[in-house]
Amino acid sequence: MNDFTTIPDYGLSWLEASGEHSDIVLSTRVRLARNLQGHAFGARARVNDRQAVLANFKGVLGRSESLMNGTLLEMPDLGPRTRRILLERRLVTSDLLGKTEGDPPVGTAVHFSHRDPLSVMVNEEDHLRIQSLLSGLRLQESWRIVDELDEELGRELPYAFHHEFGFLTSCPTNVGSGLRASVFMHLPGLVLTKEIGKVLQSLAQVGLTFRGLYGEGSEVVGNFFQVSNQTTLGKSEEDLVDHLDKIVRQVIQYEIQARQVLLRDARGVTEDKIWRAYGLLRYARALSFEELMNLLSGVRLGLSLKLLPGLRVYTLNKMMIFTQSAHLEQAVGRDLESEERDSHRAAYVRRVLASEGDITPNP
Amino acid sequence: MPDDLCDNCGSRPATVNLTQIENNEMFSYHLCEDCAAEKGLETTSEPSGSSPLPDFLAQIGDEPRGEGDPDSECSFCGLTLTVFRETGRLGCPHCYETFESHLRRLLRRVHGGTKHVGKIYLPPDPTVSEMEKRMEALRRKLHRAVEAEDFERAAELRDRIHSLELV
Ligand SMILES: [Zn+2]
Ligand SMILES: [Zn+2]
After folding, report:
1. How far is A129 from chain B (nearest CA, A)?
2. In this complex, do A125 and B89 lie within 8 Å of one another by their Cβ atoms?
3. Which of A107, A204, A219, A260 could pair with A50 as two cysteines, CB 3.0-4.6 Å apart?
4. Cα distance between residue A202 and residue A180, in whole Å
5. Would the CB atoms of B153 and A144 count as touching at under 8 Å?
6. With an 8 Å Cβ cutoff, are B116 and A204 in contact?
7. What angle do CA A239, A180, A324 make, to 5 degrees?
8. φ and ψ at A311, to 5 degrees?
9. Which of B10, B89, B96 lies nearest to residue A43, judging by beta carbons?
10. CA angle, A146 as apex, A140 and A147 as ends, to 5°?
11. Mean predicted confidence (pLDDT) in A63-84
């Protein structure tokens, strides 16, 4: 059954915040890039290449245990809103959908395994992108999940593999293992204590890459950072994953220390920031995406510091996903103008927080 | 301004100004809300500023004659060095042979080496040497799992080794 409505909650299992350090590490993702012999990939792939790759992949579905009983969605069959929902859940990339709003390229598809956090994009930049998305810091487990599916696929499909360079990819920065592991972190302590620059510098020195997002006035939006391995060739998959894991654990320690500094030196200001964020979320009538991300960051910090008793990480994770525009439109059942969106966003947040009940500050 | 469209999708109006940092490089974007959400939250897109690829690609252009003939072309997909330099993307597995000497230098710069040491793929009709290489890689992984006292993983790897021995 090839319809997203049959699996409306797909890709959301990480919201549960069940993984290790899930107040600081929102999610862990590992993806493998694979290509098939005999077909051009990426921008050089012609319609018949893409059709052949998809046909090959479909041929495996019935024979792979991980893929059996899953759902295959072909992008050109989906409505624009469904495609945006997949994008907002990070289950597909804007590359897979094609750069413009028109119809996605022929042969582009995504497969969702019945084991929730495991999906395969077909005919993205590489023929196959296998990825798993887990809650919290769970790099080794995430790697194992994709490794297992990769084994099954590799038995059936003729991968492009070079005796020296390893798995061949469209971009030379992915060649070798084809593995990109990333950890999505919330680091408000390091940002507020202005230590973040140093930490990020040191990540680059140990072969990791990071991304953060700044809004106007160079304020970090939401204090979220994504850290990944930079190189893919010359190290085993386990080495890549373990190295990232080790460094991320250090960053978590720095973040915890920074939060202790905040509580010790600026408790009043910090508490005020957190409660203001909660108050705005609870009562605001309009929230832009950027404002929401910053408020959620404040509340997330408060929750992590146990200053907002009763609130769950799950609730905050859920708000991040369901307040994005396609999700809001799906809930309302129609397209929304920008201002309308802001008010629907605020209404959704108020409703969720009200259903969580009143939060009473510690005396 | 009605024609002020998003830098990323080019189709929806841009409402958010964002500066993304990637390894000490700043990228400014004027984005629609959807694309801002995609870039701001976790993203599956590749980090664009994370590699010395553009520098290197520029350098290929300055190479001595004969070495970096910009018109050399992949016989399978038709990619030329010129296009590779512009996009940073290869077109097919065969490109790795066509542009091997360039790639070797590029890979050394980007990854610090050219030799893959991870998983070994076993084609449907493997040669003896391919099987040996895969076995060797699996044993390395098994050794590592045992040292880390990761017995579940070790059992899994032993299964893979056994299935190979049966072939
Ligand atoms: Zn856009
Ligand atoms: Zn080619």
Report:
1. 10
2. yes
3. A107
4. 19
5. yes
6. no
7. 140
8. -85, 145
9. B89
10. 80
11. 90
Chain B hits for A175, CB-CB cut-off 8 Å, are: 96, 107, 111, 116
- The tokens for B46 are 């590749």
Residues of A in contact with B111 (CB under 8 A): 175-176, 231-234
Predicted local confidence at residue B51, as pLDDT? 46
So what's the pLDDT on residue A114?
87
Which residues lie closer than 8 Å to A131 by C-beta, 6 or more apart? Answer: A29, A30, A31, A32, A118, A119, A120, A121, A146, B44
Residue A96's H or E segment, with its range, is helix A94-97
Q: Does B54 touch chain A (CB under 8 A)?
A: no
State how far the alpha carbon of A99 is from the alpha carbons of A71, A82, A102, B49, in Å.
Answer: 24, 16, 8, 19
Answer whether A101 sits within 8 Å of B12, measured CB to CB: yes
pLDDT at A130: 97
**Paired tokens of A83:** 């495609």
Distances (CA, A) of A198 to A8, A191, A202, B23, B50: 41, 10, 6, 12, 18
- Tell me, in angstroms, the distance from the centre of ligand 1 to residue B5's CA: 8
Query: What would the two tokens of residue A257 be?
Result: 């220390």
Q: Which two tokens stand for residue B162?
A: 């056994």
Query: How close B77 comes to chain A (CA, Å)?
Result: 6
* Cβ-nearest to B91 among A40, A214, A224: A40
- Considering only CA atoms, which of A85, A163, A157 is closest in space to residue A127? A157
Interface confidence (ipTM) of the complex: 0.87
Alpha-carbon span A150 to A134, nearest angstrom:
17
pTM of the model: 0.88
Ligand nearest to the CA of A40: 2
Please state, in angstroms and rounded to a whole number, the distance separating the CA atoms of residues B107 and A167. Answer: 13
**Closest residue by Cα to residue A227 from A174, A178, A182:** A182
Residues in chain A: 363
Question: What single letter denotes the amino acid at residue A170?
Answer: S
In this structure, what token pair is assigned to residue A132? 């798993």
CA distance A359 to chain B (A): 27
- Token pair for A30: 């590992």
How far, in Å, from the CA of B62 to the mean position of ligand 2?
22
Strands A179-186 and A25-34 turn out to be antiparallel
Mutation target to probe the B interface, by most B beta carbons within 10 A, among A94, A157, A229, A243 is A94
> If we measure between CA atoms, which residue out of A98, A99, A104, A150 comes closest to residue A128?
A150
A288: confidence class by pLDDT, cuts 50, 70, 90: confident
Q: How far apart are CA B40 and CA A152, in angstroms?
A: 34
What's chain A's average pLDDT?
90
Distance from CA of B163 to the nearest CA of A (A): 12
CA torsion angle B94 B95 B100 B106 (round to 10) = -140
